[in-house]
Hints:
Shape: flat
Structural class: mainly beta
Number of strands: 9
Radius of gyration: 18 Å
Order of helices and strands: HEEEEEEEEE
Amino acid sequence: WRLYVGGIQRLAWEAARQYRHRFGNPIGWKKAQLVVYDFDSMTDSDFIGQVFADLVETPETTAPLLTADGVPVSGKDGPSTLTYSITWRRFAEQSRLQGAWSVRIVRAENLPVCDTVLWASRASSDPFVKVFAYSEDESYRCVQRSTV
């Protein structure tokens, strides 16, 4: 019973924390971090690379993927890139929220192969992107995850 109650308390805490970070940010979102991972079902997903962007209206843009140390990531056919666009979507006047940033992931190219199976000819990657939005002072953070 103690484990059950502890699990419910943790779930309630995470829900409240997520709500505060998503809807309680009074100063708005200023920057985004787009992090590309390779999905792994049995272990932690593999970090491939990241791109930093200011949250301003941005037409379709291609940026190089960087490691955590800022070194460009390369795949088999050259530098790895991520193409994205950012738009502001204003909500209806009667909404309690002004609007939302929409980050569209268009494509990722030349990603390194992260999944190696018994046969090298079947090596592949199944990437997904986590989008982290940060307030100007980084006291608020929101995370969205794409699908594979």
